[in-house]
Every structure is written in structure tokens, then in C-alpha cells.
UniProtKB/TrEMBL annotation:
Name of the protein in its database record: Corrinoid adenosyltransferase
Recorded name of the encoding gene: yvqK
Source organism (scientific name): Kurthia zopfii
One Pfam family from the record: Cob_adeno_trans
InterPro entries: CblAdoTrfase-like (IPR016030), CblAdoTrfase-like_sf (IPR036451), PduO-typ (IPR029499)
Residues spanning the signal sequence: none
SUPFAM superfamilies: Cobalamin adenosyltransferase-like
Molecular function (Gene Ontology), one example: ATP binding
Highest rank taxon of the organism: Bacteria
GO biological process, one term: cobalamin biosynthetic process
EC number assigned by the record: 2.5.1.17
Keywords assigned by UniProt, alphabetized: ATP-binding, Cobalamin biosynthesis, Nucleotide-binding, Transferase
């Protein structure tokens, strides 16, 4: 089997049921999801399994779910059977609630960083936000029903999960989160409520 096919040499790529330009909004969206998946894989290599077994299980599930998201976005057939459902979102919400109880209470905004794993999880969080913005663009350019809306909901929740996971990645190795120096005290609940900034 040859890895290269030469079929994309003129700037087109294949979807499930069609071909489009490689800079099509649909390609931008699932390509960013692929980039996100790679950074999650990197974060997993930076997490000690004896300390972060639960996060590693979460992240492996997320990697599979992101693959499902990409596959669903690549499907342009008339009869479509999507893999993603709302169930992973509900599971993720439960995990966010558990993880947010673990680190020290937040009062101020924090900067991405701390331990290597936390820094990588923050990178993944910002890529998730980019993928979500690209989903909004894609939805504006397509007919209703042509794009699975569950993918956008999943990405929105995933950015919250990655924020919580990054804080836990610091907390368990006794590395403090880095506070934004000019931040006011913005978390009246100490950061215990689910982080739903919707940015």
C-alpha cells in the first residue's frame, strides 16, 4: 500500500461522498480537530500514569470521540449515519464537575502554563476554541442538517474539560497555577462552578 496517492496534488481532497478544495471550511474544521487530537496525544505522554490514570482514560476516550467528530464532518453523503451523540458530552460534564473540586480555589484568571502536561492541555484548549469557531463558520456556509450540531456542542464542552484537566495536572504535582498579574478577583465562587465562558 502506497502512503501517497498524488490525488491531492492540485489542491483537492476527498470527503465521504465527494471532493472539495483543501481550504474548504469543512476541511478547516476537521483538520483543526486532527491538530487538537495530536496535542492531546502529546499531553498524554507528559502525564505519569501512576498519578493521572483517570485523566489518561478520559483523554483516550476523547481522542476516539474526536476521531468520530472528524469522520462525521467529512461525511457529505445524502444518507448519513453519524457516530457522535450527546452521551459523551454528558459524561464529560460529570468529569468536569469532579475535576473542578480538586485543585485550589480560583480567585483570578490564570495564565497557560505550570507543568509541561498542563501547558500542553492549555494548548489543546485553545485549539479546541479555534475548532469551535471554525464550526460556526461552517454552519453559516451549509444548509441545515448538513453538519452534525453535536460536534459544536462537544467542542464547547471539551474546552471546559481541558481547562479543568490542566488545573488538575498542575495540582497533583504540586505546581501552582500562574495567576494573571493584573487580574481582579473574578471568581466569586472560587472557580468551583463549571467554567462556561462560551468564548
Amino acid at each position: 500500500m502506497n502512503l501517497y496517492t498524488r490525488t491531492g496534488d492540485k489542491g483537492k481532497t476527498s470527503l465521504i461522498g465527494g471532493r472539495v478544495d483543501k481550504d474548504d471550511a469543512r476541511i478547516e474544521a476537521y483538520g483543526t480537530i486532527d491538530e487538537l487530537n495530536s496535542f492531546i496525544g502529546k499531553a498524554m505522554t507528559e502525564l505519569d500514569g501512576s498519578i493521572f490514570e483517570d485523566l489518561l482514560v478520559d483523554l483516550e476516550n476523547i481522542q476516539n470521540e474526536l476521531f468520530d467528530c472528524g469522520g462525521d464532518l467529512a461525511n457529505v453523503m445524502k444518507e448519513r449515519h453519524y457516530k457522535m451523540t450527546d452521551e459523551p458530552i454528558e459524561v464529560m460534564e460529570q468529569r468536569i464537575d469532579v475535576l473542578m473540586e480538586e485543585p485550589p480555589m480560583l480567585e483570578k484568571f490564570i495564565l497557560p502554563g505550570g507543568s509541561p502536561a498542563a501547558a500542553t492541555l492549555h494548548i489543546a484548549r485553545t485549539i479546541t476554541r479555534r475548532a469551535e469557531r471554525q464550526m460556526v463558520t461552517l454552519l453559516k456556509q451549509t444548509e441545515e442538517g448538513d453538519v452534525p450540531l453535536v460536534v459544536q456542542r462537544y467542542l464547547n464542552r471539551l474546552s471546559d474539560y481541558l481547562f479543568a484537566a490542566a488545573r488538575v495536572a498542575n495540582s497533583r504535582v504540586n505546581v501552582p497555577d500562574v495567576e494573571y498579574a493584573r487580574s481582579a478577583k473574578v471568581f466569586k465562587d472560587g472557580g468551583r462552578a463549571k467554567k462556561k465562558d462560551d468564548n
